[in-house]
Each structure stands twice: as structure tokens, then as C-alpha cells.
Design goal:
alpha+beta
Length: 194
């Protein structure tokens, strides 16, 4: 973890190691989400129905850094809906000082048609709002899969989103291909010079 937390703003998807204590009484939830295992979403059910075990939430817990006054937000991982209440997963409420690896994440923009945030269950990663709600610094990390505990949370829930630029590539390369074909036909087949 860098000494200056502002350095995290330029470290998205980089791994950091943090040491400190979870503040379980201030837990937030992000969802509903499917569980990622080995980088792939594992859900069960069909187009119109899903099994109850495949619907869950990410557990976001404030984390007090050891030797500092700073608190950050940690996505501890995924829990099924039936374990959303922390009392249903006491073995997941790790007490004392812990050291864990996490992936730095930046805030998400609110997706179109997503309602404004109300309450402690978030629909998207609104880090500034979460930080304001729990009085932490506006920094967020996803715990790695090594942090997984029985009955959840299941760590390693980092979703990598990349921009889809395929349409612009298609238009560019087909345009260049068409223009090159036209030049070749004009030069070779018709024998005209420029």
C-alpha cells in the first residue's frame, strides 16, 4: 500500500497488500451479482429463472489500516442472498488484524437507467457515496480469491471491463480495404494513371 493514498488513483487493477482490521458493523452490499469463480461467472438457471444459490451480493467492508488513521473500502467478495445478514456467516466476520492482497479499483459511472442510490445496498460501485456513508477515504480494493472463507464471502470478484471498439475497427478496416480495392481496379484493370 502506498504511503500516499492518492497514488491509488493511478493504480487501477494493480495488486496491493494491506494490513489492518475490518469494521464489520459498517458493512455495505453491492448487487445483485453472480459469483465469479476462476474468472468466470457461475450461475445456475435459465433465461427467466435462476436458482436461489446463484443470486448474491458483494460484501463491502470498511478496513482500518494498521499504523494509520486511514480507512478504505474492501470488497471482501460474494455471498449468496441467504447469507446477506452478517449474523448468518459468523465465521466470515474475521476479528483482529489481518493481512490481505487486493486489486485497486476506481469508481464506476452510474449506468444509464440505473436509479439513484438509496440505502446500504448499492447497484454499482459508487465509491465516493460509499466512502461518505461510512466515513472512509474514497479508495476501494477487491480482495483476491485467497481471502475466501466458509459460507462467504468468496473473494476474487474483480470484474474487468474493457471498452468495445469493434465497430469502429470494422468500419476503419473495411473502408481502407474498399478504397485500396478501388485504387487497384482503377490502376491495374482499367490502366488509368493518377
Amino acid at each position: 500500500m502506498p504511503d500516499n493514498l492518492d497514488d491509488l488513483n493511478s493504480m487501477e487493477y494493480e495488486t496491493v497488500t494491506v494490513r489492518g482490521k475490518f469494521l464489520h458493523d459498517q458493512e455495505l452490499h453491492l448487487g445483485p451479482r453472480g459469483c465469479l469463480q476462476h474468472g468466470d461467472s457461475k450461475t445456475a438457471g435459465g433465461l427467466f429463472s435462476q436458482r436461489e444459490a446463484s443470486i448474491g451480493y458483494l460484501v463491502i467492508t470498511p478496513f482500518k489500516l494498521e499504523g494509520r488513521d486511514d480507512k478504505i473500502l474492501v470488497n471482501r467478495g460474494w455471498v449468496p442472498k441467504r447469507y446477506l445478514d452478517p449474523k448468518t456467516r459468523p465465521e466470515g466476520q474475521i476479528a483482529g488484524t489481518v493481512e490481505l492482497d487486493g486489486v485497486v479499483r476506481l469508481p464506476e459511472n452510474r449506468p444509464q437507467f440505473t436509479p439513484q442510490q438509496r440505502g446500504a445496498i448499492f447497484l454499482f460501485r459508487d465509491v465516493p457515496k460509499m466512502a461518505e456513508l461510512r466515513d472512509t477515504e474514497p479508495y476501494f480494493i477487491d480482495a483476491t480469491a485467497a481471502s475466501t472463507v466458509a459460507n462467504g464471502p468468496v473473494g476474487g470478484q474483480t470484474r474487468v471491463t474493457l471498452r468495445n471498439e469493434h465497430l469502429s475497427y470494422i468500419v476503419t478496416w473495411f473502408s481502407l480495404s474498399g478504397f485500396t480495392t478501388w485504387l487497384w481496379v482503377r490502376q491495374v484493370v482499367r490502366g488509368k494513371s493518377f
